[in-house]
Structures are given as structure tokens and as C-alpha cells.
Specification:
single chain; alpha/beta; Arc Repressor Mutant, subunit A; 3 domains; five-stranded mixed beta sheet; elongated; LysR-type_TF_proteobact-type; sequence-specific DNA binding; transcription regulation; transcription; DNA-binding
């Protein structure tokens, strides 16, 4: 059976392209990973990696061996999970990155309920929209909005986020209510992340360049500026739910709102996610399965 030692470490190094990154994924020391891979190479009588001071890459033998081993590792983890899911006890710290009103008002409360179901689990939420390094920053998964870059990360759609345009009653009384997207050229618009707003009519998308007195990448601040009468805002509908209910804001241009983008759960590699992260992701996907913006 000792011929199987080092395979998990080998697969981790192959997929993370480094011994240090693999060690962080596996929760062990770099020296342990290096030692296990070296012993595996010795038993096989062949070099699996070409090592330089800056780069670790698979040899032709290593690439062929990896193709055989990766499915073995997945199968082993799935077998373990089938047993453990009936008797798991989650502990440790789940680290999640996210930003925006949707994460604050909906994702965070859902994770609070998840935490209540697992008393031994700690949750550390980082409300930051910056691009994270999942290995270096120790992030299990992130919740991101909009079009995702092709980064090689795993992305699973959480919800679709249609848009809404809104303004305060005082602003509309003073400046009038636009009835066409083109009318926005004459209005003060509150800009969040993009000054080109997309509207739809009859299957045609129209891009309107807007300007205004207030710009912020914080959704709460945009809503507050909108409530104070500084202009018209255009964001996902969930950002405006409470102010609309309280009468502080009114929807405008409703026939032209675009379908918007989506919020995604993003993570590095399912194979090396700890059980607490896998179950949290599954919980969120189920929780938001029938969610409407």
C-alpha cells in the first residue's frame, strides 16, 4: 500500500504548479510535500517534475501519470465524502470573500444560518471586491458579480441579477421623470462602476453614456446619494428593495431595464476544498435556487 503514498501530494503540485502552493492547499509543510513527491519518483524510477528555481512543470512521464492519478484522487475523495456526510462535524474557519449589497443583505445572513447549524464552525467574511489569491489569502471561495475573467477558476452561478433604475421623489419633482433612456443625457446620474448603462427594448441593447455629480463604487453610498436627490441610479434591483418599500425611491424607465448580470460563487479547485467549504457552497446554491431579484 505504500506505493500509493505521495499521489495526493503529486496531484496537488501538478495542479497548483508549485510545492508551496500545494502545501497550502493540503494544509501541510512544503518540505512534507517535497519529500513525498521525491519518494514517489524514487519508487517509480522516473522524474515527474522538471524543477528550476522559478518553475515547477510536469515531465512527459509526469503528465501521463497525472492523467491517470487525478481521477483516482477524485474517486477517493468522493468515497470519503459519502461516508462522512452522514456523520460530519464541521469545524475550523470558513473564509469567504464578497462585496456589495447582495452579499451583505442576502449571502451573509444565509451563511449566518449555516453557521448556526454547525456550532463548531467559524466564519470569516472579507467584504472586499479586489481580486483575491485563494491560496495566498487563504480564501475558500468568493462571491462575485458580473462578467468573470477567464482565470481557470471554478465558477458556479448563484443568481441572476436584473437591473433597476430609480430616483428620489424630490429629484423627479425638480427635474422631471425620464421616459426614454436617451433622456438620461439631460439628467444627473449617480455612477457606480460603469458610466455606460445598458438598456433593452425589443431585443435590442442600447448603451447610454451618462454623467453626474456623484460617483462611488460602494452600493450603499450610491443608494444614499440617490435618496438625497443627487440623481438617478441604475443597479441590480436588490440594491433598491428597502428604499422602494419605504417610498424613499421610485422606479423609472422600467420598460427598458436590462437583464443585468449574475452573481457567482468562485473558487480555485473543488478537489482541494475542505468539507466546510463544499457544504457551504452547496447550502448557498440550494438556498438561492428559487431566489428572485
Amino acid at each position: 500500500m505504500n506505493s500509493f503514498e505521495g499521489i495526493i501530494e503529486f496531484v496537488a503540485v501538478a495542479e497548483s504548479q508549485g510545492f508551496s502552493a500545494a502545501a497550502k492547499q493540503l494544509g501541510c509543510s512544503t518540505s512534507h510535500v517535497s519529500r513525498q513527491v521525491a519518494r514517489l519518483e524514487q519508487r517509480l524510477g522516473s522524474a515527474l517534475f522538471a524543477r528550476t528555481t522559478r518553475l515547477v512543470s510536469l515531465t512527459s512521464t509526469g503528465a501521463a501519470y497525472y492523467q491517470q492519478c487525478k481521477d483516482l484522487v477524485v474517486g477517493l475523495q468522493q468515497a470519503n465524502e459519502q461516508v462522512n456526510q452522514q456523520q460530519f462535524y464541521l469545524n475550523g474557519t470558513l473564509r469567504v470573500s464578497g462585496a456589495g449589497t447582495f452579499v451583505e443583505q442576502f449571502v451573509a445572513p444565509a451563511l449566518m444560518t449555516f453557521a448556526q447549524q454547525h456550532p463548531g464552525l467559524n466564519i470569516d467574511m472579507d467584504f472586499n471586491s479586489r481580486i483575491v489569491n485563494f491560496v495566498e489569502d487563504g480564501i475558500d471561495f468568493a462571491v462575485r458579480y458580473g462578467k468573470l475573467a477567464d482565470s481557470g477558476l471554478v465558477a458556479r452561478k448563484l443568481v441572476d441579477r436584473p437591473m433597476m433604475a430609480a430616483a428620489s421623489p424630490s429629484y423627479l419633482q425638480a427635474h422631471g421623470t425620464p421616459t426614454q433612456p436617451s433622456h438620461l443625457h439631460k439628467h444627473s446620474c449617480i455612477i457606480s462602476n460603469n458610466e455606460h448603462w445598458l438598456f433593452e427594448q425589443g431585443g435590442i441593447t442600447d448603451s447610454i453614456k451618462v454623467s453626474g455629480r456623484w460617483r462611488s463604487n460602494n452600493a450603499h453610498t450610491v443608494v444614499q446619494a440617490c435618496e438625497q436627490g443627487l440623481g438617478i441610479a441604475y443597479m441590480p434591483k436588490s440594491s433598491f428593495i428597502r428604499p422602494i418599500e419605504l417610498g424613499k425611491l421610485k422606479p423609472v424607465l422600467e420598460p427598458f431595464w436590462s437583464k443585468g448580470a449574475s452573481s457567482w460563487i468562485v473558487y480555485q479547485n473543488r478537489r482541494f476544498l475542505p468539507m466546510r467549504a463544499r457544504l457551504a457552497i452547496d447550502y448557498l446554491l440550494q438556498h438561492f435556487a428559487d431566489w428572485q431579484e
